[in-house]
Structure formats: C-alpha cells, structure tokens
Design a protein that fits this description.
The complex is a heterodimer. Chain A is mostly helical. Helix content of chain A is about 90%, strand content about 0%. Chain A contains five helices and no strands. In chain A, helix 2 packs across helix 3. Chain B has a seven-stranded mixed beta sheet, with helices on both faces. In chain B, helix 3 packs across helix 6 and helix 5 runs parallel beside helix 8. The chains are: A mainly alpha, B alpha/beta. Chains A and B meet through helix 1, helix 2 and helix 4 of A and helix 8 of B.
Chain lengths: ~130, ~260
C-alpha cells in the first residue's frame, strides 16, 4: 500500500475526529449523534494507521488493493450514518407534528378564555384591546 | 413524628419536590402521598414525561401539580422542566424524588440538614454507597459502572464522590438557575456533577437508603448499559476540555440562529 495514500487517510480520519470532538465541545453536536461519527472515525483511523489490519480486512472483504477496503468501509459507515439520521429526522418530524397540534389546540383554548373574559367584563377587556387596535 | 427541618421554619421559604414520571401509574400516587406526609411544606410537582398510562390522573388525585410533556423527552428533559418551573415560580429549594418509589422522602430532612450546615453548598446528593450499614441490592455490573464513574468524577472534581448516578438530590437557588438553563439530555446525573463543577458550584453527599424499583420498567436494561457507559464517558471526556461550558446570562443563547454551518 502506498505511503502517500496511507498518510492521507490517517490525516483525514484524524481531522474528522478532531472536528467532531470540537463540535461536541462547542455544544453544536449532541453526544448521542456524535457517537456514530466517533466510531467511524476511530475505525478508519485505526485501519489507516495499521497496514496489517487493513490488509486483513481487505482479505476478508475480498479485494486485492487494501485502500479499496478502506473506501468500502468508509462508505458503509456513511450509509449507516445516513440511515441513523433519517431515523432521527423521522422522530423530529413526529415531535414537530405533536407540537404543532398542541399549539393549535392551546391557541383555541386561549381564544375561548379571552372571549369569555370579554363577555364578563366588556368595558375592562375592551379598553386595552381598543388601545392596541389604534 | 416527622422532624420538621430548621430550614422550613424560615418564613416564606419555598420548597419544591419534583417527581419525574414516565408511565409510573403503579407508584406515583403512593410517592406523592408519602412526600406530602413527610414534607408538608413542600409543593409537589409531577412532571409527566409523555406517559401513556394513568400517571397524570394518579398524580392529580394524590394532590400534586402536574406538568405534562407533549412527548417523551427522557429523564433529563423532565427534571429540567422541574428546574424551569422552580425558577419561574421563585422557589428556594428543589428536591428531586423519583416516581418509582426508590427514594425515601424522609431522607430529605437529611439532605436539608446538610445544606443548612454548609451554606456555601449548592447541591446535596443522597448516596447509596456512603453509610456502612446501607446495602443497595443492585446487580454487580451496575454497581461496577457506578464505581467507575465515581472514581473518574472524584479525580476530575477534586472531591470524593461515591454515587454520581443518584437522582436523589437537593438544589438551592443558584443550582436551580444553572440547571434551568442547561441540563444534560440523556442519563444526566453524572454529567450534571461536571456542569456544577464548571460553574464553580459546590456539592456534598449524605448517606441515604434507596429501594429497588418496583412497578414500571427500568430505563437502563443490561443491553443499554454499555451504550450508556460509553455516552457518559464521552461526556466526561469532552467536559474536561470545554472552554465555553454553558450559556451565561448575557452570553449567546443556547439555541441561536445559524450563521455559517
């Protein structure tokens, strides 16, 4: 395996790991989503660093050229990450829907309460409303 | 007769007991009632974390104020709602008591006594592993995990911590205001100790007795334990390097508009 591509792979996975850790440190990335990134980064870093391991992995997968195994594994991780995020997005969509529905119901209840207040004390309730309308 | 704690003699000390509950219909009624018996001057807030059973009805019937989440947020979100409620309603002290019956409300007096004795302390934590005669019957794998976290945290924080995963905690106003703004998401008890440390707040532990969960489901199965440990280890590791810990008053809001990525 060429030295250059090995160096590139080590640097790239190292930078990825550092970026992920920095994002978690700055609270821009939640730990629970960072875990899979970290696992991917660590596996890729280890395989890039230890040629012997990568060659074993290449043998297992059935490729001649070890860097291909790296690409294959990296791609597999990317697919896994995308799937993970699709699941996370689905959950967020569900939660958003629930919030929207509860908000709509809450606004209705609030309007009902406000109009009751108007009925019971029309002069007092109207004054601030009229002032706001001007 | 239950000893009335000295702190409660002070006029207008507002105390809140927060009971986070997710599908704890079997135990929450009993927990709320025992809190009201043992701590008559505490207001009881049950935070219903999207329960699908009759938890809310049971809690209301037992005389608690209930906050209901539109969906499940996890223990971190539920307890934080308690902090926000305490902040907005001007409470002086908040004690967290789990809805599954593991915590004994009578021990709250011990927590308050410790806080009274050490006025510069912001959080008092009930520990299962302090007193010699208290034996907490939990599986050894769980206890080992807890001891590992305890060791790590003790080194980082610089004081002996024996039970970092205990949720049985009493907080004062300073701690309430910090955690209302920022409280960890998943399995937060361990990370919360670090947050406290970052803000230069202080904590102490007192020995308490806890019971095993009865009714409901434990949120940590043996399968999830490894994942939990890794997650918390990561949080501890990253927490060591946090230059900008948590939002300060006047600082950038925790969820701000995007500029750049």
């Amino acid at each position: 395996m060429e030295a250059r591509i090995q160096l590139l792979a080590v640097i790239a996975s190292g930078i990825l790991l550092l970026m992920v850790l920095e994002l978690v440190r700055r609270r821009r990335l939640l730990e629970r989503y960072a875990l899979l990134w970290l696992l991917s980064g660590v596996v890729l870093l280890v395989l890039s660093t230890f040629r012997g391991l990568l060659e074993d992995a290449a043998g297992l997968i059935g490729v001649e050229y070890p860097p291909s195994a790296l690409f294959f594994i990296a791609f597999a991780f990317v697919l896994l990450l995308l799937l993970h995020f699709s699941v996370a997005v689905s959950r967020l969509a569900d939660q958003s829907k629930v919030l929207a529905q509860r908000l709509a119901l809450l606004e209705k209840r609030l309007r009902d309460v406000e109009s009751e207040a108007v009925e019971e004390a029309p002069e007092e309730a109207e004054r601030p409303r009229a002032a706001a309308a001007r | 007769m239950t000893a009335v704690h000295p702190l409660q003699h002070r006029e207008m000390t507002r105390c809140l007991a927060v009971v986070p509950a997710y599908n704890e219909a079997a135990t929450v009624g009993r927990v709320v009632r025992s809190i009201r018996d043992a701590l008559p001057l505490f207001d009881v807030l049950v935070v219903d974390d999207g329960s699908t059973d009759t938890t809310v009805a049971e809690a209301r019937q037992a005389g608690a104020v209930v906050l209901s989440h539109p969906y499940n947020l996890g223990i971190g979100g539920a307890v934080q709602s308690g902090f926000i409620y305490a902040l907005e309603n001007d409470y002086d002290y908040l004690v967290q008591i789990d809805g599954d019956g593991q915590h004994e409300p009578r021990h709250v007096a011990d927590l308050m006594q410790e806080m009274d004795r050490h006025p510069n302390v912001d959080m008092v934590c009930g520990s299962r592993f302090l007193g010699q005669h208290f034996e907490y019957p939990s599986p050894i794998s769980r206890r080992t995990g807890i001891h590992i976290f305890a060791f790590l945290l003790s080194r980082i924080v610089g004081q002996r911590i024996s039970d970092p995963t205990s949720g049985f905690r009493l907080y004062n106003r300073r701690a309430i205001s910090v955690f209302a703004r920022d409280y960890p998401h998943d399995y937060p008890e361990v990370e919360a100790v670090l947050v406290l440390h970052h803000h230069r707040l202080r904590m102490r532990e007192v020995p308490v007795r806890m019971y095993l969960r009865e009714g409901g489901l434990s949120s940590i199965t043996s399968g999830k334990s490894a994942y939990y440990m890794i997650k918390v280890m990561l949080a501890i590791f990253v927490g060591l390097f946090r230059a900008r810990p948590v939002p300060e008053p006047g600082g950038e809001a925790p969820v701000a508009a995007e500029h750049g990525i």
